[in-house]
Protein 1
Amino acid sequence: TISGRIASRSRSIQRARSCKRSAGERQARSARRVVRAFGLIEGKRVANALVVVSHPDPCSFNLALAKALHESFQKAGLSSHLCDLHRMGFDPVITTPEARGTPATDPLVIGQIALLREATILAVVHPNCWGAPPAMMKGWMDRVFAHGAAYAFPKSRDAGEAPFGMLTTKAALVLNTSNTAEERESTEFGDPLDRI
């Protein structure tokens, strides 16, 4: 009957909403555990999370992962910034002055450096491209993890001494995806993070 189908459909919708709500609650609980584990809410100071994703497809699994992380951090009470490098038009090409240690002048790079320096948690999401991050993500790393922003040298220049870190990040998470079968990935290519 029509009323039976409507009632059945109504129960299906309620179950779907319940499952979605349960998944969201699990996600938020998981994010809260991460926050507690690293002591990332100290007194009234709320930690900042920076989620950076690189994938050209706006419907990609990578972007879905990044959005889920961003939302989880927010649900856990963190201030979270989601940086989708492709959609924001980030230029990954390092300039000659930047390669020689001169601070960036590109407003997008300057903004990314500011977000990185404020981040207590850094999450990076990208596909595995030939055993490495894609060019867009590598370019972001080259330009944002820059001298004077992420690290410096004791004598203000590279004179052969070890650099020191300037970031206050307490936790980092790297999620990379691959379309290669797990067994082949591990036996033939290995974990690309082992080479970094």
Protein 2
Amino acid sequence: VRSENYVSIANEESNIRLIAVDWDSNPVPDQTLNIEVIERRWSSTQEQDPNTGDTVWVSEVEMIPITDGVVTTGADGKAQFSFTPPNGGTFQISVSTRDEAGNEVRSSTTMWVADTEYVSWRQDNDSAVELVPDQTDYSVGDTAKILITSPYQGTSEALISIERGDVITVEHITMESNSYIYEFEIEPEYAPNIYV
């Protein structure tokens, strides 16, 4: 199970690619796959640590069913499932089926969704800003999309640098909400890797 994009936008259709294979990695045609999409909505509050007196974030997650469905693989063992995330946040896409022996087989992936409205990301005690790339590898000419999950509500400022040994570029942006997708083109001088 794999999302076409690890990073998506609320109210835009997202496609999930599925493939069923046997133990020898051969495609399994006509396999029924059950899909469930669940939002992982975080609720974070600050509490006083009784041992240290420090104020710390305590987070709990609520699992909210969004949609489900059934698809059947084609002759190549592949299938696709589409859904539209209703809001920003973290979504878990779970797929289950049964093999020819009747054993349950499960797989899942996570997708991050940006929104212009406030998104309840999990808060950590370091006030870190998490960066989530839309894919793991890029080639020259690709457009990288990086989701910035800010712990701050409302409008905030960010200074984004692209680095490799030295600072290559710097850009100041204004984030209108606590989820922002930063896009940039992968240049030849970024090989073999960069840091954002």
Protein 3
Amino acid sequence: DRNAAAKPQYIQGTARTGGLTQAAETATAQQKTVAENFGKKTGLKFVLTDDDMVYGGYDRTAGTVYVSVKSDNFLGTVSHELTHFIQDYDADLYRVYADTAVKALMNAKSVSYDDLVRQYTRTYEEQGQSLSREEIVDEIVADATGTFLNNEDFINEIARDSKNKSIGYKILDFINDMIDAIKSLISRKGIRKSSE
């Protein structure tokens, strides 16, 4: 789901108006609400597809997030793609969050950092993609976001942790007005095969 285009140079100007710009006929009301609300909150355009092969994508240049309504974990896919946006939008916040998310994922899976990187590298290579170590870590962080947004205990833990209080509150503020739509989409299913 990585966009090969170079990261854009951000110039302050008129704020973008985001929201749901296109939805597959099979999109549920909850999926549309989540996409519309996240789009308005971030200024990103959301396109809901019915793709069976690619569950999500983020086009930095166009400011567009693509999410398949057929994703086994719709919220996980949305949050995965939004993690790439956060990386572009607030690099400092992303670095703090990335460190927290990778450590939590390592603990949850009882795996070392190097083993986790090797596992992801192998999975992407099997899919015909050659990613740098930095890109692999970005994918790990993005997958972790989907996993942890389906875990209320993790959200509460990160908000209580005094070292990460500001990031916890930013994350909670970010999703506060979308809680009802998100709850209806919470899934116990995995993000995708590459995160296993």
Protein 4
Amino acid sequence: ITDTHNCPTYWNKLAHALFGGTSNGVFAAGVACATAAVPAGDADPINDFQLTLFGNENHQEGSTLNLSDYVGKPVVVNFWYPSCPPCRAELPDLQAAYEAHADEIQFLGVQLLGLDSAEEGQEFLDELGIEYPSGADTDNQMVRDFKIVGFPTTIFIDSDHNIVKKHAGILSAGSLEALINSTVVPASTPVDVSGS
């Protein structure tokens, strides 16, 4: 995590948002306040989930989607919250990747609640012009299910809906492009989203 100057305070706030209490060092154990790649293991299968969406030009506020809506399609899930500077920095590159890959990959944004409100999440996405489906994790269940310990975190899910890569920390346009092309895009169709 690169958006915090005081890691214990940050982790206690995050633990409070997720679990209603402080971490007491347990939640943050082994988690550095820095950008890091986190291996997902060998194709970890995931359960279906439902996300209630924020509104944008492509999605009506309050509509829902499930992972199972995208059977046979790879999915990139990005976890963020509005007051996270690295989240703000990488979302324009995710938007560019969404525009480049919309026909072959589903992009989803998931907001952690507790540090910021859902209203702040909607304003944040409006400000940045994010058009892919995004919603608030209302009970932070997705954050727990995906074992998110830092923000932003991006999960790369293959077309069989197995987690093939988890990246904790900010992704540059080049890193995002490389991860998309090496994990979820068929080898014959690499797309360059750098320079956005």
